User: Fold these one by one.
Assistant:
Number 1:
Amino acid sequence: MTEVQKIEFSPEAMLEVSRIVSHYPQDKMKSALLPVLHIAQNEFGGWLSAETMDYVARLLHIHPIEVYEVATFYSMYNTKPVGKILIEVCQTGPCCLNGAEKIVSYIEKKLNIKVGETTKDNMFTLKTVECLGACGYAPMFQIGETFYEHLTEEKVDQILENLKQEKLKAINN
Amino acid sequence: MGRKLLLEHLNKANINTMEGYLQNGGYRSVEKALKKMTPDEITEEVKKSGLRGRGGAGFATGMKWSFLDKNSGKPRYLLCNADESEPGTFKDRLLMEKIPHLLIEGMIVSSYALGCRTSYIYIRGEYMFILRILEKAIAEAYAKGFLGENILGSGYSLDLHVHPGAGAYICGEETALIESLEGKRGNPRIKPPFPAIAGLWGCPTIVNNVESIAAVVPIINDGGDEYAKIGIGKSTGTKLISASGNINKPGVYEIEMGISVEEFIYSDEYCGGIKNNLELKACVPGGSSVPILPKHLLLKMSDGNPRLMTYESLSEGGFATGSMLGSGGFIVYDEKACIVRNTWNFARFYHHESCGQCSPCREGTGWMERVLHNIEYGHGKMEDIDLLWDIQRKIEGNTICPLGDAAAWPVAAAIRHFRHEFEYHVKYPNRVFDEDHVYQPEMKMQKV
């Protein structure tokens, strides 16, 4: 059963969009594109479909191509669907000196997926990313807006289990 | 204990709130600047302080300000570069997360000096949680009358907004940052014209790093001369150093410029020595793009004197025997760290982050990554080492922005100082790592 999602911001999101647009001169609405795409990604399932991008283009009075070229340039925008929980492990130098690679293979084994893949239940997607500015607190990953630092295997177990339970609860409600 | 100008109140209660910040003397510089000083007098104090851009390039901040075109008739903009993404650097994050009002205070004084009516803080998208902290602090500043119309009755008005990026290292380059703020891909612009003439929306624009703008606060409070008394030569004031890697106490430290590198690594006040009682092997002192130095060159300059934590001392000897202070991203490697693996890691980073505009960088970073991957995983040939040298040399200086140089330098320095490790990888492809992917130092000792 697939439900076709109507692409339209919630009233709260719309309010946030107007607040952001007001930060720029009236004829420079395009400047709001990056922040508005963040909102769109949050609103529409963690990724940007062509329909979502077209909607944003209409909202900001710009051409769809102007949205596509931006969405494909920046690594935080997902142009393909991702799981409910996106795990982004930092794999840059200082994190690697402190065991980032081991954390990645541990998660791969634990969830039975490779980097870039999503679990069958559509709960987790595992990604590796470049330096997140947490070099002194390595190894680390980011989920949503939260940085989880000084990771150990036990901590990873705990964090992922807690987040999964939260998501399941939210779905059941 | 060295003097602290930025992190002095880091551990005070509620320093992240307006109330706590005011209790610790916050916003005094706004009062002083807007009521008692002219914009030019502020620029003059910043010039006197000798403050140099803390983002990595080290260009004199006061001088940069003086390039701003004030006669164009167009609005002028100050953009704070909070895109912090140079691997090894996490100092701005601490400052914004814990003492957000210090940056806002610096933004108000600096915007007044430059004659800006609207200013922006461009923060990397991954720091969204800090964007929320800053927006809350900005709302507090509006409520107290430090932002908005007619600030403190001075007649000066300023709006301040935070703008998120979305995951692109290149947007730390100032013209890419401007493009990104305009809602475009982060492709650096060809200069001239420089942003001071034609920047955001074609208007005169100054882009300064978070730490530079925060430093304006103590400079105005105590005077540029007082600030310049700290440090040595043209390295004045204090500097935030992000320390990471194989050390006992990673974290952000505010140092008085001029302490020795040795003290910074081994003193308990700072890094606290190398972890697990291992030996220091090498260090990248200023963020991933600056040359890596082996221990003997890191601790001493060519005249035998100790190397110091200053712009001049860290770059003494040029790239042959020196490095750079850069952004202060201080990454320490112990004797077990594999230089080849680290170099491959950084090459992958630059390949991933290249915007793709200039072919030497777009293609060259990918070639370097692949050649290094081959060497690291046991498929390298001896001539690959010279090939790498050749590629990096052809990237450096041949691109619109400094990302090309930033990608070339770490590869060049690794080969320059650790060629034997590359040769060892090629010669003994199956013997380099133990099961944890850790380089075995005793193997290095065997005759290559």
Number 2:
Amino acid sequence: MEIIDEKPGKTILLLGNEAITRGAIEAGVDIATTYPGTPSSEIADTFSAIAKYLKRQDRKSPFYFEYSTNEKVSLEVAAAASFCNLRSLTCMKHVGLNVASDAFMTYLYVGCKGGHIIVSADDPSCHSSQNEQDNRYFALFGSAPMLEPTTPEEAKEMTRLGFDLSEELRLPVLLRTTTRLNHARGPIKLTKPKKPKGKGFFEKDPNLVTVPAVARQQHPELLKKMEKAAQISDKSPFNEIIQHGKKNKMGIVTSGVSYNYVKEAVKDLGLDVTILKLGMTHPLPPTMCKKFIEDCETIVVVEELEPFLENQFKALAYDMKSSVNILGKSTGHFSRLYEYNPDIVTNALAKIFEKKNPLEQPAPAKLSLPRRPPALCPGCPHRATYYAVKKVAPETTIYPTDIGCYTLGKEPPLQMADLLLCMGSNAGTACGLSVSTDQKIISFMGDSTFFHSGIPPIVNAAHHNDDVVITVLDNRTTAMTGHQPHPGTEIDGMGNPAKRIVVEDVVKGCGIEHVEVVNPNVIRKTSEAFKRALDFKGPSVVVSKAPCILLENRDKRRAGKKIHTFMVDQEKCEKCDICISEFGCPAFYHDEEDKVQINETLCNGCGNCVQVCPAHAIKVRKEDA
Amino acid sequence: MKTSVVLSGVGGQGVITAANILGKAAVNAKVNVYASEVHGMAQRGGSVYCTVRMGDVSGPLVASGTADALISTEPVEALRYIQFVNKKTKVVTDINPVVPFTVAVGDDTYPALKEVYKEIESRAILYKVDALHIAKQAGGAITKNIVMLGTLAATGVLPFDPNILLETILETVPSKFKEINKKAFNGGMQALKDR
């Protein structure tokens, strides 16, 4: 395994996320925790893969790693390690920090002991997310030092050196990344890993108990630490001034992946400009920024999403009574929306600097192309659950949904998603809907989401006797983010046996009286169970239990078992189209002669279409039978 | 000197793996490289594209009209990313369509392949390859992405010896699959040379 076995000094190609993991290992990290979420997942998955690999080789893992039940728990676990003077890392997607924010905000008052890196993976353009919030504001909000890498190599170095920064300030450091860094690959030069401590010692300290009197005393301490952080920022190797061409009082301030686009654009446009590249973006380096403002007549701020740097530069310029011209989002040169790319940055800079853009501006395809959105996989048990529910639920039933593969049930023909806010919101909104309308309510969440934040709203439904059906789609994995384990699986993130928490047992313990467990791949019986749940007055929970087809087929292949695919018997097919227009399995298509066919390379062999077809026209493919 | 390659296709066709191998090959050839990938929700059968940039580059994203090659494992997915090409770009596509579900349910239509090719040819240099057939002959449809890497090597855009790409493939795949991947790569190279 290259990432752990290659010699220091060697250069290897790593994903930005893998580079962060490597950086932590080089810093001698003792404990790493997470709740998986795109675009952060591979940081933790790499810790997990390394731990499992070392276990197979009978080698001791240098670190402890866990997939925690949610981001707040993961932050608390890692913070506790830091209080024991161990080095720790917590990684999560941007919205995960919302979940962890309760711990985060007060943790900063208390401060850490062993170095602690908190990775926030933001997702401009919402590639895999419900919003594109800019988590740099969490650094401002809570007073956390923050680093923003530009390349995978810099991500590794910032992680490695971030632990020292964290220990110097006795504050956790926010490493803020974006999708185009997390999922970019680049060359990484390896340095020698430090030896982790292994075990720490918790020394009692009354300041670790944040009663009001302590909090009042810790807040000014935090502000003092931030003053020190500002001095460090002024000397940080991650903040630098880069001159391109001649000096002419034109400046660009930028950070993160935007720097990559700026760097190529100034070259392509042949600009004479001074670039302030900021890597430590909170607190900003005060002396460096003031000097930059003094030296410039015009400053262009290039940053994705919110005007985080822009507004701080404006405030600084105001305090300095400077007449510098600051261009960015407020002047309409850049957008607050979506991620940037080379085109956007080159176009904007060409306009500002009055240069001709050398890039051609080719149009997209003229032909109208069929959309190809992501969809529930052929053979996905969620499809069977949705189909079974639709058979028995009244037309006006409301389907609150949640974060996971099953959100893809929103698309036609199933259209089984009506409301979604965040992790766990399915059951909370179900409660609210039940007191607000007389419509029937059937909500859906996955098993990992259930453990993450689905349990409190179930307790709420039980306590208030809300007339709702809450469904837990239990496919025994965290599928969407890459099949990570969770408390309902028997193996943990390091490959060790773990206590399996049974969803229906928890639900019963929450006070739900009507609980049914079904196998969604038996569609008629699943429909009947939902009918009973709908008829029950009060809260009911249906646990729809069948493994993710991708995992099931992977296990079959590994065991040398054949996966039998299905085909349509054209003599029997009556072209009712139910398999396509109601069941919606993407392996089905109409051929040139408008016959219904199953694409054999897409079929995962679940056979649920056999139950759906009224003409009994679907059978096992001949060469498979 | 910079080289930009866009790889596109349908989630599950091995586009990300191909991009990763290409990036590793560049590192093996001691060429600076950045690549970008699509993960998470975008992978569930959706349209996927990766970019690999080599040489004097500072980031992985390709500006419009600046790709040296666009390699697609599906015809419509080649045309979907046509904004990256210019008149000199070499576009290689597999000729076997994967019909999206939006077409099956009747919301969208899959355009006639000759129209797809016509538009690509009007904007770049097009090479059509039956990569699925070559992959099956090599020993498995799953090697289609490696066939496409073979075609990329044959376009001549790579800033290093194509043998380094083959060697990187062979060091990446499990030993029992080395032979079929070698056949797939060479099959892809040959298919483009034969044109």
Number 3:
Amino acid sequence: MIPVLLIVIPLLSGLAAFFLKGEKGVKTWALLSTVITLAVSLLGLTVLNKAANLHTEVEWLPLLGSKFSVGMDGMGQVLCLLTAVAFPMIFVATWNSSYKNAHNFYAFMLLSQAGLMGVFLAYDALLFYFFWELALIPAYFLCSQWGGEKRIAVTFKFFIYTFIGSLLMLVGIIYLYLHTPDQSFALESFYKAVLTPKEQGWVFWLFFIAFAIKMPVFPFHTWQPDTYEQSPTAVTMVLSGVMVKMGLFGVLRWLAPVLPMATWLNGDTVALLCVIGMIYASLIAMQQDDLKRLIAYSSIAHMGLMCMAIFVTSDQGLQGVMIQMFNHGINIIGMWIVVELIERQMHTRKISELGGLAQKAPGLAIMLVVVALANVALPLTNAFIGEFLLFSGVFNSTVSKVGYVFAAAGGVTIILSAVYTLNMIQRVFFGNTNTLTGTMRDIKFNERFVLGVLVIVILVIGVYPRPFLELTQGSVDTILSRMIIKHPS
Amino acid sequence: MNAIVISAIWGVVMMFSGIFSRNNAVIRGTALTGLALLILVNILEMNGVLLFKVNLHGMLYFDSFNLLFNTIAFGSTFLYAILSGRDMEKVGKSVSDYFALIFFILCGVSISSSFNTLLMLFLGIEIMSIPLYILTGTDKRNLKSNEASLKYFLMGSFSTGLMLMGITLIYGAKGSFSLDTISLGTGALTPMVSAGLLLLLFSMSFKVSAAPFHFWTPDVYDGAPTVFTSFMATIIKSAGFIAFLRLFDDAFGEMHPHWQLVVSIVTAATLIIGNITAVFQQSVKRMLAYSSIAQAGFMMFALVALNNLGRQGLIFYTAAYSIATIGVFAVLIKMKDYTFEGFNGLAKRQPVLAATTAIFLLSLAGIPGTAGFMAKFYMLAAAVSNGHVMWLVIVGVLCAAISVYYYFRVIQAMYFKEGDAQEMEVSSTFKALLVIMAAIVVLLGLFPHWLLDKLNYFF
């Protein structure tokens, strides 16, 4: 019941939003819808947390053996929670931005939420593919219509990139489907598909390229900085906060447990790509003058670390990925909100043109510093827990023989991330004000509220992550037992 | 059988309707009645009601496969006639004749979908083609229309010659025109059979505009009056494919391993040439011509794979492709400027038109949630399950990604670019019909079995 509601509420309210009139009304409608979704998702975590409520299966395409099968395990719950939390936050934080044809904007936003929920909930490969694309199409329209100057070309690049990836994945899905014993798209049947190691090998790449483009992993990342820069910030938040998690999630649900042997064999190759990407992105981030591009590159580095941890599989590493997927979403949305607030008032994102904002906007500065410190994984913040688990997982990996090398190389990027993040804070918020930044005003109530909530979440998870870790342990065990690294307890 | 007789009779009725009435609305009404009747009798036949008792001597063969296709073809023609029937009046005065020709074509369509001997195939294809040569040239005072008609006629006759030669060779080798007899015996390939087979392959490739026999397509589609291009690119092309598949499946299915590679190469060439050339077009009409070649490449997958998924998929593909293309053309006909720039800012002036066109284009590009995706899905699944043509699958997938480029250019023009879209008159019925068609596209994309269940008892 809960999974269906999580998909249907944003879907229907999104479709309805196309026909609403008046900007204020649409905003309220969208916010209301996302708040209800959040409430449902919280109910699913607490009061109604029973297996019967969390899985639904209905006949869909009997000819093909595909069912409308949705459900949530611990990993699904965490990501649905992230999606459910992110959208109301985004809507509140950007409450003061106004959009041309606001009804279409909010309709597409809600549709993309429906798509994301579907991706995280689907237990049927064809259904997964449907939602995978359903999340992409609204994003395409959002970026091309409401983005920056070069939006059309940039978004197009993004779309073609991801579309090629998804089509390759579709071929992979079809291949597995035809090799299942009962000709079905269900995840359980995919587990039973019989493939030779060679077949596993290339089906692995069909899937992995799709996920790698989405995350993005070096060398498939070139769409990402441009798209983040050109999209309206609300959409960038969705893209970087939630949508990139689709890639990680795809690996965790549809790749590692389905093709365990190939995942094992290609683990070091992928981990190497991730390490290259992390260092490369961190170095570029240090050179950026544009706030949005800086955060975009830092995101590549963070995603690389998570992806690496998946492929040098270990218990701790996977737990780290689970919790870090949530944390990264929260933290990066916090960063984008700050950028949005600065850009709306200053009309620039150039670090070199800013300075001394802390004097004028102390509230904003405090919030930013907490979020930024979480971004560099300082102890007491949520990302510390995540990255600590990730690194110790990579270091102690039994799958990779060179885990310690990866851990060491990845560790360098933590230092680099401190360099560019702290440097950015210093140059934007401290120092002297100039004629431009002299006009800065402090943040309003709604913005303070959102950032405040984010800061609380960051600190709470940083101090007491246990409920999260317990929630996702089941999903981690499933993956590990499929990869025959750990037998289910 | 019902449909063949009724469509022939109604063609004659339409010819005479022009004598009795000068009122175009009456003529159009008569034509729509005829089409509705055709759909009705065809559905009756699917349920086992035969209106005419004719001893066919095994010349024709009816099963749920070709009857379902007939329904799709008549249904699409019906939609096409309501949407664009009015625009035929702008082409010339003899509207009744145009409709008469369309009914004769439909007669050819039903023959070429249900042939059981090579003679009937030839007859069906010719009945389909000859009225089409005329329709292409209906815009008499336009030089391009004349050129297109002549070009089409010459090239068409040439390929007909090839087909006849092929039929003769097959007859010489097997001693019969009947598909049942031809398919008998071993799959051994004598020189005579292989020559005949190749000639048939070439001529059929010509009819469905598969590369490298596609050179007539852009010029003819571009030169013909847009109303008729729409009909040509959808219903006729689909009928050609059904005939193509039935011929190679029923007659030469045993020899599949021998000709699979040739057909695969033709398919790959069609996909690559169609898609890449479409990217460089400046006119939406020409782009649609190349896109029809590209889509033909995907339909060829059914032939390459030659399995149940492919057969089901081809039927579904014809429906998905026809509806979406008819929709896009219906909007295009209303435009005065056929370039991509002509679509700039359409979303502001005509939101309904823009939204439905966007859905049709998404379907053509094969985005999930639309019929076009399920169609492509079936084709890919068919080819993957065949197992020998993974390289072709990858080519197909990459080409599908290329196709996004030119389909989305129209969407970009409509939604994201500023411009004064041209003034155009559109009635609310037209809009309502487009919305219904868009709904069909989406519903078929979500529930393809609504259509394919009709095939179930056959497979």
